[in-house]
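Sorry to interrupt, but I need a hand with the structure work. It will help me judge whether the discrete encoding reads sensibly. Write everything out right here, beneath this request:
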Amino acid sequence: MIRCKKGDMGAFELIVRRYQSQMISYISRVIGDQHRAEDLAQETFLRVLNSVKRYQAKGHFKNWLYLIATNLCRNEIRNRKRQSTDVFSDLDLEKDEHSTDHIVSTMENLLSDTRYLPDQLYEKKERQQMIRQQVNNLPDNQKLSLILITYQELSYQEVSTIIGCSISAVKSLVHRARQSLKRKLIELGVEESYNAKI
């Protein structure tokens, strides 16, 4: 960021390349829309670029970046609610949130592994959809905390900075989110082994 402050656009391009896929993945998990996530990730980087002159290195850059993305996600969710549309109506559960390379790699592994029969693959996809829906049904701060800790693998300290609450509050949010998800998934009949990443 120091090089960016001096007008080095190459340094900004490096920042975008380094964090772009993380931002898209994070935003996509929060709002449930891959295409909109790409737009919001771009908006995140535009805000970073517009704030370069005012940036002060008080904390980790990554935390600041996630804070901007989190605020954009909150705005997006709030706007969807104002438009009186269901937050989940735009969720295309058939889309995988991973890159094309990851999909191709996964499919190659599945095709070479005879354990996965079509009915088992369908059941697995159905379980993943149920989990994704239940994560999206969580209250905003629980959902954000859970995604940042579990899927983005940030520390509790980093998440507390991003969300703007204490570390113990983040731990409580994640705990409540996991308990709520576990309860809902058991009600839906999703096996315990599928709760492992939650």
Q: What stands out?
A: Residues 9-31 form the longest helix (23 residues).
